[in-house]
């Protein structure tokens, strides 16, 4: 997985141009565009549930998936699972056979697994991005999207430290865990991890 | 007042991301040094696939009455307004919002929005001007 903040609205220009507005009021007017690369289709399905965002994703209607076994995201829990790797091989063979027999890519892709790699451009406004961080940096979020959110926050803090010093999982932003009985119990560690001057 | 940089480079990156198989960051870096290629790719954009126009944001200062702003917010859900004073507003949105609003209505506001994107997205601006004729 790789992510890069390609472009963003310069916060300083708005902060100086509109001193009567605070960061919270300016956030919906700021936008952040990321290249998100080599994540699984399982992860991209979760991403697009954040509806206040824009996505341009590699299309399996136009792009042939070559050498599927080299283009999958493998969860650590199944890394040495024969079942997983056998299924990827079978899906790869089935896809190739269908494409070679003249089936269109848009139909052949139906045999591709959720593990298949994908890349996309994603743009979110500042308010939506803070909400994304709040949810997806939580210890209860799924590991791949949490890892992605972590990398995105690092890039945002490098580019706009003044805007993102208070961004993090909701427990960090709110000062309490909103997960109720599902709480991970790790709020103290999260506060330490996302403290801006923390080296982690 | 402000905008995200390299708006048309991002439009071309978005278009090629969906169809080329190259990684979006690689495409963006390549296109930054190829304005001719950006012009060519953006020139063949089919704007009905509007999401390619969404990877940017522009911010405007608007002098307008409350009634005019109410009308605009009823016309388009995709511009964001913050009131600064009696007749001053901070407005922002992406190029898709501008294009679709301008295609749907012709008002002093849509004319001003279209005029304001001339330097930021000259090819898209040209497309909108051609549509007017």
Characteristic terms for this protein:
heterodimer; A: 200 residues; alpha+beta; Gyrase A, domain 2; 2 domains; four-stranded antiparallel sheet; 43% helix; 16% strand; B: 133 residues; 4 strands
SSE arrangement:
The complex is a heterodimer of chains A (about 200) and B (about 130).
Chain A: E1 2-8, H1 11-17, H2 23-26, E2 31-40, H3 41-47, E3 53-57, H4 82-100, H5 105-108, E4 117-125, H6 126-136, H7 143-159, H8 161-164, H9 170-174, H10 187-194
Antiparallel strand pairs in A: 1-2, 2-4, 3-4
Chain B: E1 2-3, H1 7-20, H2 24-32, H3 35-43, E2 58-63, H4 66-75, E3 80-83, E4 88-93, H5 95-104, H6 108-116, H7 122-132
Antiparallel strand pairs in B: 1-2, 2-4, 3-4
Please, could you describe this protein's structure?
The complex is a heterodimer of chains A (200) and B (133). By secondary structure, chain A is of the alpha+beta class. Chain A folds into 2 domains: 2-58 and 117-194, Gyrase A, domain 2, CATH 3.30.1360; 77-111. Chain A has 10 helices and 4 strands; from the N terminus they run βααβαβααβααααα. The two termini of chain A are 19 Å apart. Chain B has 133 residues and is α+β, with helices and mostly antiparallel strands. Helices cover 54% and strands 14% of the residues of chain B. Chain B contains 7 helices and 4 strands. The two termini of chain B are 28 Å apart. The mean pLDDT of chain B is 92. Chain A binds chain B through residues 2, 4, 6-10, 13-14, 17-18, 20-21, 25, 28-31, 33, 35-38, 54-59, 62-64, 119-121, 123, 125, and chain B through 1-6, 10, 13-15, 17-21, 23-25, 28, 51-52, 54-57, 59, 61, 80, 82, 84, 90, 92, 94.
